[in-house]
């Protein structure tokens, strides 16, 4: 779980950077493409192509296409029809997708993992629920697709590593992820991007550099590697821990308004969901 906790803080910090320096100023598709290219420059020179099962390579490319490419395109498109509070509300359903997809791949039903994921969703909803208004069905469906592809990617990677064990370190078998992401990000930029909204300041370029090298390259690798070291229920819960952490970081650094009682209550509920999952694991073992 240390990998997941590290990335939770890293991504929570990244959300504030995007909101403060990139959102509305730099074309989102260009930002996604830049992140993929920078991350690829980190991992592709380290990547082994020989001696690796072709199905594993193809599977990890699919993970990258789903978990990064499709997820981010749907996320950015949802902002056309949803307000920010609505987007945040609808993304808290990711743990449910993780638990259900993990159970489907394992051909079983684990009620404890589903319960833990539901408790985590409740915690995040306590923090972020501000009401929903207007025509939001299209945005809701887009975000559920984004939630499902992000969940499917991390669960699929976990199963691929278990199915194709190897003496080759994971970091040398992860470059395929960014090849798959590029297959989605590049057409997205070419078809939907706005060349008039490229970075115009040194700060914006530095933020993109941070996002590409740390949030994307290091973050995606550590998150997926961490996912292989925990059970599906814990992985589902960790998908919502970034909500209180992100709000706390935003409050401390950028002094944004946050409802501290709701933050504390929601964060406590999310932490409690980890206990629910562990209790279920102990009972299953017994």
Descriptive overview:
- With 286 residues, the protein is mostly helical.
- It has one domain.
- It has helices spanning 2-22, 28-43, 54-78, 84-91, 94-105, 111-128, 137-163, 175-192, 202-227, 232-238, 242-254, 260-285.
- Helix 4 packs parallel to helix 7 and helix 11 packs antiparallel against helix 12 (260-285).
- It is globular.
Q: Radius of gyration, rounded?
A: 18 Å
Shape: globular
Query: From the helix content, strand content and strand pairing, which structural class follows?
Result: mainly alpha
Please tally the β strands and state the result. Answer: 0
Counting H and I runs of at least 4 residues, what is the number of helices? 12
Helix-strand pattern: HHHHHHHHHHHH
Major pleated sheet: none
Helix proportion: over 70%
Strand content: under 5%
Any low-confidence stretches, pLDDT <50, length ≥5? none
Supply the number of structural domains.
1
Task: Give a short overview.
76% of the residues lie in helices and 0% in strands.
Q: What layout of secondary structure does this protein have?
A:
Layout: H1 2-22, H2 28-43, H3 54-78, H4 84-91, H5 94-105, H6 111-128, H7 137-163, H8 175-192, H9 202-227, H10 232-238, H11 242-254, H12 260-285
Helix pairs in contact: 1-9, 1-11, 2-8, 2-9, 3-7, 3-8, 4-7, 5-6, 5-7, 5-10, 6-10, 6-12, 7-9, 10-12, 11-12
Membrane topology: Multi-pass membrane protein
Keywords: Cell membrane, Membrane, Repeat, Transmembrane, Transmembrane helix, Transport
Subcellular location: Cell membrane
